[in-house]
Design a protein that fits this description.
heterodimer, A: about 180 residues, alpha+beta, Nuclear Transport Factor 2, Chain: A, four-stranded antiparallel beta sheet, two-stranded antiparallel ribbon, elongated, B: about 425 residues, Immunoglobulin-like, 7 helices
Chain lengths: ~180, ~425
């Protein structure tokens, strides 16, 4: 029988290596799994577009009834296209008076979820909005929004909320692309 | 440039090229032989609504209600012609049933051809024609597709490939309220005004029944004059810098409404003795008194359409607010907006009004020494609602909504270092 001499130093090194490997495995397992709700941001343009959408929604759902409507509108318009600003302004009177009547004091945290459509200069994003408190007429504090952002000379800007039939059309198109074609007999 | 060409093209569509008055054609009540609007049309003015089909649903149960606005005319036969703004027309086309578009008898001249051209111009570039032709090879050209959309047979939203055109279209309508390309006709609209776009606001009620022997009564509505403006001082200073007097500014609102002229005809009969020879030989003639038509007597009534309510407001515009919090705030630390909105009438001021013997009604409102504390441009807005007119207890015209805008400049003196 052959005797293999192992030095005390080698034994200590081996033990340290084993401990490091075990800790590494445990650390990898402890890392959070990939969250499906995180943005599938594929490039810099997508990042900028989704940030523009998030900034606009955070401004739109930052409601402080103590402020004048125009202060709220200015914040929204600062991150919107000129036409998008006018779009929001057109319907703002009723909305703001509702907020003021209900003494709404709300902030929002917005997370881009998915880019659902795009052209060369436009993108549509599905966004997750979390509010600090419910808005009047609803008891929800979390909801999704579909918004269009447009690439302008001053970067990506919020343009508008999509209309109900536009959202349905986009979702239907998505469903068609993921539904496998059934073979006939 | 592209938007300019689009506006020019839309205006070209608006010009009534060749529309001939025909006995059977209701458009003959609208245009004369030269294609001009007939002088006997009653201009009902612009009506604004917030219909569900122009409401944008937002997260958390909120909604943005966009304005649908229509300029309307009433023909002598009680038909109503509706001219929606460009954005209103677009949303009507997208919701033909809900908007009442489907109930109209078509557009001037060529049925819905003009509307199809309109849709092609404003939304044609935003349709994915490649995918559409793959999915629907039955459409041989874009007009067939738009026709199917207007008939409610085709969902257009599936094939839009762009989104910004909708806000551009809305902005086009807001910036040019005269951009109205479609004349939609609603037969018997005066009788069924509740079901037509714009409802019954300003619609002239059917005139009281008259004997056929005389002409139909006529209603002529004259345009009111309405204004809101600053009257003093010449250059108002923010009250914070006018600590002694705190003068502020005076705002005056005025409206003058000429009478509604109602012309009606009264048949005049006279009693005459009518005699017939006796049926017996040598007998006296048999006479009786009969009422015999002589003439139609014209009556012209000047009906007062008095002011029922007056409201005036002032709002610091967005650019001034941005200047105060931005540029001014950089040089004068802590600059803030003191009060951006004022309810002038009723509120800081009041109004009085009345009608003279000729049927002309006036109303004047004043808000004196309004304490404007912020420098910049204030948008003045005046809204007036009238009572409508009646004759012998019969409503002749519905209440009208009138409005006017004005500007008011408030100044601030700022120190400057001179080298």
């Amino acid at each position: 029988m052959k005797e293999i001499p192992v030095s005390k130093r080698n034994i200590i090194v081996a033990i340290i290596l084993a401990v490091v490997i075990a800790l590494g495995i445990l650390a990898i397992q402890a890392l959070p799994l990939h969250n499906g709700s995180q943005p599938s941001v594929s490039n810099q343009e997508d990042t900028l577009a989704s940030k523009a959408a998030a900034a606009a929604l955070e401004a739109f759902f930052h409601v402080d009834y103590r402020n004048e409507k125009d202060i709220w509108l200015n914040d929204v318009c600062a991150v919107s296209t000129p036409t998008g600003c006018q779009f929001i302004s057109a319907g703002a009177d009723l909305l703001w008076s509702k907020f003021q009547e209900a003494r709404a004091d709300v902030t929002a945290t917005v997370t881009p979820q998915e880019k659902v459509a795009e052209t060369a200069t436009e993108q549509v994003w599905k966004m997750l909005i979390a509010l600090s408190a419910p808005l009047p007429g609803s008891n929800k504090i979390q909801d999704t929004a579909y918004v269009a952002v447009i690439k302008t000379d001053n970067g990506w800007k919020f343009d508008r909320f999509l209309l109900e039939p536009e959202i349905k059309a986009i979702l239907a198109r998505q469903a068609m692309t993921v539904t496998p074609i059934k073979e006939g007999k | 440039m592209k938007k300019f060409i689009l506006i020019l093209t839309l205006l070209a569509l608006l010009i009534p090229s060749t529309v001939y008055a025909q006995e059977q054609n209701p458009w003959g009540e609208v245009f004369d032989d030269n294609g001009n609007l007939r002088s006997d049309l009653v201009d009902l003015g612009v009506t604004t609504e917030h219909p569900d089909w122009m409401s944008v649903e937002l997260p958390f149960g909120q909604s943005l209600n966009l304005d649908a606005d229509y300029h309307r005319y009433q023909t002598a036969n009680g038909n109503i012609v509706v001219l929606p703004s460009a954005s209103t027309l677009f949303f009507m086309a997208m919701n033909p049933q809900e908007s009442g578009l489907a109930n109209s008898v078509g557009m001037m001249g060529n049925g819905y051809g003009g509307l199809i051209s309109f849709l092609g111009l404003v939304a044609g570039n935003s349709v994915d024609w490649g995918r559409l032709s793959t999915d629907h090879p039955e459409y041989k050209n874009p007009d067939q597709f738009w026709g199917a959309v207007l008939n409610g047979q085709q969902d257009v939203w599936t094939y839009f490939s762009g989104w910004g055109f909708i806000t551009t279209l809305l902005q086009m309508s807001w910036n040019d309220t005269a951009l109205r390309t479609a004349y939609l006709m609603y037969l018997n609209g005066a009788q069924n005004c509740a079901s037509i776009p714009g409802g019954c606001s300003g619609v002239v009620n059917p005139p009281p029944p008259q004997p056929k022997i005389c002409p139909e009564p006529k209603v002529t509505i004259q345009q009111p004059t309405i204004s809101i403006q600053k009257t003093a001082p010449s250059n108002p200073l923010v009250v914070g810098q006018d600590t002694e007097n705190r003068r502020g500014a005076d705002v005056q609102a005025r409206v003058t409404i000429p009478p509604v002229i109602f012309t009606w005809y009264e048949p005049i009969y006279e009693d005459e003795e009518v005699c017939e020879p006796s049926t017996t030989v040598g007998g006296a003639p048999v006479c009786r008194t009969e009422s015999v038509f002589k003439e139609c007597r014209e009556h012209v009534e000047h009906l007062p359409d008095a002011v029922a309510s007056m409201q005036a407001t002032a709002a610091l515009d967005a650019a001034s607010q941005a200047w105060i919090t931005g540029k001014l705030g950089q040089t004068h630390y802590g600059a803030y907006i003191h009060q951006a909105n004022f309810t002038l009438i009723p509120g800081l001021g009041s109004w009085t009004g009345g009608c003279d013997g000729g049927g002309t009604c006036t109303a004047t409102g004043q808000a004196l020494k309004v304490p404007f504390a912020d420098p910049g441009t204030f948008d003045l807005r005046l809204n007036v609602v009238t009572t409508g007119t009646r004759f012998m207890g019969i409503p002749i015209t519905q209440p009208r909504q009138l409005s006017a805008d004005g500007k008011l400049q408030v100044y601030v003196t700022l120190p400057a270092l001179v080298p």
